[in-house]
Design brief:
Layout: H1 2-36, H2 42-70, H3 74-103, H4 117-139, H5 142-172, H6 177-209
Length: 213
Amino acid sequence: MREYFDLELKALNDKLIEMGALVEGAIKNTITIITNGEYDKLETSRMIEEKINKMEREIQNYCLNLLLLQSPVAGDLRTVSAALKMITDLERIGDQAIDIAEMSTYLKDCENIYSMTHLSEMAERSSNMVTTAIDAFVKKDLKLAKTVATMDDAIDDLFNKVKQEVIDIINANKELDQQAIDVLLIAKYFEKIGDHAENIGEWVVFSITGKTV
């Protein structure tokens, strides 16, 4: 019986890894649209989001079946419960990635007005946070899970830099206020992605220790 349940948990880990990879792909596709102006990839972003939503439902049903049919206890129960919480944050990250991709269309021809360097770095760091959190869950690595929270500090710092740059742009040219606000909103979405990734890390800590952060 134990051996069978271990196989079920491994299958759950594999599904979470797959969903995490889709989320990473969504973020990377979004930043390609922003930095390279490849707006034809917007449809790809929508397709990835649909896959993420589908995986959320699939993992949710899988976890509920484990809870109802296998009656896990102690550590196993925490693992399944944490997975249910994690997929909610992953799905929201997917939503925010497509929101950013769609908003980026308003920034066409703005490359010479605003540098996308900090947005690119925010995207890369948020993607790394998701990868680290999922890796920590699969490996049951408490130390790795706790590093996710510290990674979010860098994203917050970058957001503050973007905010100051937006203020400078508006002060220099009032006619660019709408573009500047769009940039700020995109940066805010990336900050929220970091927050959701931090949530995932906290649920990993809970799955291992039984304690909430």
